[in-house]
Amino acid sequence: MRVLFTTCPGHGHFFPMVPLAWASRAAGHEVMVAAPEGFLPVVIGTGLPGTPSSGPLDRKEIMRPEPTPDRESAVRSAGRGFGRMAAHTLDGLAGIVRSWKPDLLVSEPTEHAGPIAATAGGVPYAVQSIGLRFRPQLHAAAAAGFADVRRPGLDKIDKIDKIDEVAPPALDLDVCPPEFQLPGLGNGRPMRYVPYNGASALPPALGDPLGAPLVCVTAGSFLARDEGVRRLFVDIVDELGRMRVYVALAMDPDLVPLMGRLLDHVVAAGWLPLDLLLPRCALIVHHGGAGTVMTALTHGVPQLVIPYLMDGFDYADQVARTGVGRSLPATAGRDAVREAVAALLDDDGSAAKAAGVAETIAAGPAPARIVPELESIAQGVAA
């Protein structure tokens, strides 16, 4: 069986798919990952083969990210960006489907070109979630962004020129535990969320007991590049220095110098593997990224979420609703952050609820158990 995985050029979008791709290869199947050319080093760094779905793309120009504390604006901005990204990669993906002839395509929910190319090529496809389901408003914004670039009636791929014209997926894989999922949006075929955070090493300083609680602080691989977001997280790290805690600052090493002088309570800074780091942490403070939330849930670590983009607001709401942590608006001041951190470190209730969600995740079917279902889908179409 040949399986083509398609992804937007973002760590948080691609990394959740890596365990299923590995499981498919381990079962003896051919696997290929298609992504824009500039993202291929990340793909290849996972040990998976990759092929470009487009030439170099200016992600900033296409996505036009607008970090904002306003939920609706964030959803519209991100959705249109995903639609424009699909419009730019569709021709390349259609060519890959024609030439490589996959038996099955697997996409993540914000990568819309793969399902169009699969539908046009008569190939079944599956969608694997990266966490919470996306709201219909994001899909509508993506359709509008796609139409910004593709000319209806002219830029067709085998009679398809709209995102809404694709066939439904043959399999809807859901890595989010049902008790954490957004209500009213349904549940797909459960699959265990297996964290993958890229190639990195745990610093020796984090290998031994520190004598005080360790708090991870991160704004993800993308948001920390925004100056306003970075200023907020500088304040958070500084405020934690007034408490009896240590901080592990997980962020792009190139951005660490922009954080200013790091005080003695910061014991590690740079790319840190959350999957290895979080079992050592009493708490994580972050921006609401899917991979960050899901990895924390997997390890039962309480969370303080301060959202800025798109689905970050939904993750913040669900963290607070389920009691696995708290959320604050981006406009919250230092006092509010300090009070929330102190409350979570002193509150056994959040830790117990987070541990309960972790048990649900651990009981779910591993990606290796899903591979036979992928085989059945591919064989059913080929028969």
From TrEMBL:
Keywords: Glycosyltransferase, Transferase. It comes from the Bacteria. InterPro entries: EryCIII-like_C, EryCIII-like_N, Glycosyltransferase_28, UDP_glucos_trans. Residues 50-75 are annotated as: Disordered. Residues 57-74 have a biased composition (Basic and acidic residues). Residues 22-220 form the Erythromycin biosynthesis protein CIII-like N-terminal domain. Pfam families: EryCIII-like_C, EryCIII-like_N. Signal peptide: none annotated. SUPFAM superfamilies: UDP-Glycosyltransferase/glycogen phosphorylase. Residues 236-376 form the Erythromycin biosynthesis protein CIII-like C-terminal domain. Belongs to the glycosyltransferase 28 family. This is DUF1205 domain-containing protein. It comes from Actinomadura chokoriensis.
